[in-house]
Amino acid sequence: MAAYVVGSRGSALARAQVRGYLRAVRERVPAAEFTRRVIVESGDRDRLTVMSRSAAGGSGFSSEQEAALARGEVDVVVHSLKDLPTANPPGLTLLPPPGREDVHDALCGATLASLRKGARVGTGAPRRAAQLRAVRPDLDVVPIRGNVPPRLRMLETHGLDAVVLAAAGLRRLGLEHAIGELLPLDRFPPSPGQGALGIQVRTDAASAPLRAVLATTADPAADAAVRAERSLLAALHGGCNVPVAAHATLLPTGTLTLSAQITSLDGTTQLTATRTTPTPTTTPESLGTTLATDLIAQGAHTILAAARADLGAG
């Protein structure tokens, strides 16, 4: 069997995600051989511009990896799915993810109820900042940058009372002990695709054997859920860093439920909607598009346009 090159970012989390994914592949196809290549993204070099670029629909955490994949320098890229734009570049596609980690956001350093009035809470995500302001407008939400371990250290180095991080990343890094509280999904739904890996490959005939190998890890339930969430985001013309939250679940009965939330950056306005549909009668993508239409009727475009303008000016 040919040896394939796996591309990813160089962070500790990216390395952990590749290790976990390749472990799952090798359990199913023991003869599969892989080497790994680190690709440095513009967002890793210049985090100050990532928020505004993402709000405009781009991503500072995937473009270099996608370019390397398209050029044939790597054969597959393992992303955090929530960091990926909703449209694939020509010649590239996403495979179904191999299951999904915990979708919750985690508050580290405290619980929400224990935070004093005016407590300083760090997050790098506009969605999380908006949700915090909606639930606790008394908090001082502080923008922070960096990978997971440096953000945790900011509890001490920056005098923060708490930081918000994805539970999935903490668990993949073996940092569950840092979780003070898993924030409830009814008030803090996640980013579309949060907790899932984005397995990106080429669509050319030469990549067919690799796609067959990687397809052995596919999880249909996780695939349906993230397809619904990402189609909603696409229909709203949202980037990966606007205050859009979505969470879908596929029940054993075949019923797919998708809930979504849009929050103004100051936390004063919040839109929510939910739809449930049987599959395969309705595709996950059509469910996401329909729910986006419900949110647009409530005024979603006004909130998102204001968010983009504020983030772009930041």
Q: What attributes characterize this protein structure?
A:
314 residues, alpha/beta, D-Maltodextrin-Binding Protein, domain 2, Double Stranded RNA Binding Domain, 3 domains, five-stranded mixed β-sheet, 36% helix, 23% strand, globular
Structure notes:
This protein has about 325 residues and is an alpha/beta fold. The chain has 3 domains: about 5-100 and about 195-220, Periplasmic binding protein-like II (D-Maltodextrin-Binding Protein, domain 2); about 105-180, 3-Layer(aba) Sandwich (D-Maltodextrin-Binding Protein, domain 2); about 230-314, Porphobilinogen deaminase, C-terminal domain (Double Stranded RNA Binding Domain, 2-Layer Sandwich), CATH 3.30.160.40. Helix content is about 35%, strand content about 25%. It contains 11 helices and 13 strands. It has helices at about 10-30, 40-45, 50-55, 65-70, 125-135, 150-155, 165-170, 210-215, 220-235, 285-300, 300-314; strands at about 5-10, 35-40, 75-80, 90-95, 105-110, 120-125, 140-145, 160-165, 180, 195-200, 245-250, 255-265, 270-280. Strands 2-1-3-10-4 form a 5-stranded mixed sheet, sandwiched between helices. A 5-stranded mixed sheet has the order 7-6-8-5-9, sandwiched between helices. A 3-stranded antiparallel sheet has the order 11-12-13. Strand 1, helix 1 (about 10-30) and strand 2 form a beta-alpha-beta unit. Helix 9 (about 220-235) runs parallel beside helix 10.
